[in-house]
Amino acid sequence: MQIRNRIYNNTLYIVLSGELDEHSAQAVRITLDELFDLNGFNQVIIDLSELDFMDSTGIGVLIGRYKKLKSKNTPIFICNPSSHAEKIFKMTGLYEIMPKIS
Amino acid sequence: MNVVNEMTIKFKALSINESFARSTVAAFCVQLNPTIDEINDIKTAVSEAVTNCVVHAYPKKDGDITINVKITPTSAIISVEDNGVGIANFEKARQPFFTTKPEEERSGMGFTVMETFMDKVTLLKNENNKGVIVQMEKKFNGIAS
Question: What's the CATH number for B5-139?
Fold first, then answer.
């Protein structure tokens, strides 16, 4: 799993690349939480266009990050999910807390 | 049951083996001429079952996972088995958002994902009455070639 980021127009963009499962979950949690400590943004967009695989462990990771950002009143959005990731998001209701944007 | 092909793999219950397990099972099921979506369904369901074993079955992290796949002309039957601590309440474990480890940011959606992506999911105790077998069936339109 690789994670890239940049801050532009008060938005923290994060690209998750690779496979998000139990094996990669902890490193993703730590890296994202470090990025959330950066300054200069008031919303977060997670780009999943390069995510090759995700299971419900990934949902747990994303909900955990939502809770961290909620305490700072920072909204988080999802973009470019695969049709498969989308299936899991719709099933679990993730879009209700982390809306999809195009 | 008309089993035309079968394979079994056994490996340590380590998270690093999840990718190996789901990819291997998916590759074996290619003989059923699945769509890309169907392959992804199988990969995800296997990943959920294996994750359950890795996270819950062995508190001492010292066990094995065995996966058996049977191919029939119209289906794949995938059994994921451990010899761990077992599941106290099968019915509860299958409820959406139920987890015994909320402090670890677990979504509790593993069995729901399996049930959504596969046609049939059965939870069994294994022969020694120790551990769990998750048996999942996926039906296909194509006939195995």
Answer: 3.30.565.10
From the list B16, B105, B106, which residue is nearest A23 (CB)? B16
Helix axes A56-70 and B110-117, enclosed angle (nearest 10): 130
Q: What are the domain boundaries of chain B?
A: 5-139
Shortest distance, CA B46 to any CA of chain A (angstroms): 10
With an 8 Å Cβ cutoff, are A21 and B109 in contact?
no
pLDDT digits (tens, 9 = 90+) for B28-52: 999 999 999 999 999 999 999 999 9
**ipTM for the predicted complex:** 0.92
In this predicted structure, the answer to whether residue B16 has a pLDDT above a threshold of 80 is yes
Domains and CATH numbers, chain A: 2-96 (3.30.750.24)
Which of A57, A59, A86, A88 is most worth mutating to test chain B (most B CB atoms within 10 A of its CB)? A57
**C-alpha to C-alpha distance for B44 and A21, rounded to whole angstroms:** 10
